[in-house]
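Could you help me review a protein record that somebody else here produced? Here is the record exactly as it was handed to me:
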Amino acid sequence: MDPNVILNRIVRLAKLDTTVFDEVRDDTNELVPALIIAAISSLLAGLGAWLFWELGDFAFIDNAFLNNFLLGGIFMAVMYGVWVLVTYVMLVQVYKASADLQSLFRTMGYAAFPLALCVLMFIPLIYPVFALVPIALTFVLTIYAAQSATNADSRQVVMANLAGLAVFTLVLGFVAFSGDSQPIGAGIFGILWEQP
């Protein structure tokens, strides 16, 4: 695991060079870096939600560090794994396409890096850009990532990935709004909550 190679791949993905997915798809050594990228990106989204509450004028928010950064970031990382699993199940079970689960985790793990942009949600007035755009970018990159790891056609990949995103969004949204009096969640899911 060479950090320079991983960083180079992330920079290439930032430039929308999707050949990165073809490189990591079959490289078994890339599973751990892909999972680390997804986890760090999720934690940075949690950090952004915490900074939003901390730097804003929200005196009523208690435990924001725990609820947004730690629990929200960890739960977002877990739900991103569920997104990958739902995409895999849809591709293999519904569309009868061939796909390797580890290849899908490797490619979609790298595709999670835009979630790290959520760390900038603390910037006043433009915070919605850094809350919503990273999820949209992640969705687009995960389409390319899943396409690289399967023989399914584009429509099937988009639908399978959309199902994964739907589960990701529904569960994180539910968790964010289920807190009794405090927001719980990373990224946009941590800042959508409003005091009744």
Observations:
- The chain has a mean pLDDT of 89.
